[in-house]
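Dear colleagues,

As part of the handover before I leave the project, I'm documenting each prediction I ran so the next person doesn't have to rerun anything. This entry is a single chain, and its sequence is reproduced below.
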Amino acid sequence: MSKVITQEHIDKSISYARFRDLINSLLIERQTTGPEKSKELVQYTRLNSQRMDRMDKKTIIMPELLEELKSIREPQIWVGLVEAWCGDVAHSIPGIAKMAVSVPKLSLRLLLRDENPDVMDAYLTNGTRSIPKVIALKKDTLEELWTWGPRPEPAQKLFYELRDKGEPKASIAEEIQKWYNKDKAETLQKEILELVRSTG
């Protein structure tokens, strides 16, 4: 499999903690990540910061997933494509981060989508730059093991159903938010569990 993500990408990536710090510092200046700095996107970023706080506190890794993560033999780097204003990032990346810190052989590194179009365009979803995308790599060779994103499968299916019905963006976002609130990162964990098992 061709290696899209290079060591240069890894070297300029940031940790989840640094991402959170970046968001907080940008919000002080009423800014967000990415080239567009609209008031709407800044407000989404503020909401997402609160969502990530909540997810950081409430997400508990399932025992079977933790056991599978601990059985990983070779060190891996999980690369996440993110932006601060993206609601799906706020719901999924905290759980991914908690998985990564739970075992020594995992490391999560984040790249901002709009600063890395070469990587983003290699991981499109139906032709769109949807995020988050998580790409698992072998640490020593950067060989790709699996990819996940931009949403858990049931949420993605719901998104397509609502979009195809012609629902307004605001209504779609509200329904997706309800799905995330009810799911509590359970489906995310089950999907990552299956991916980790498949490459075990």
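The domain at 7-151+188-198 is CATH 3.40.30.10 (Glutaredoxin). The chain has one domain: 7-151+188-198.

All the best with the project,
I.
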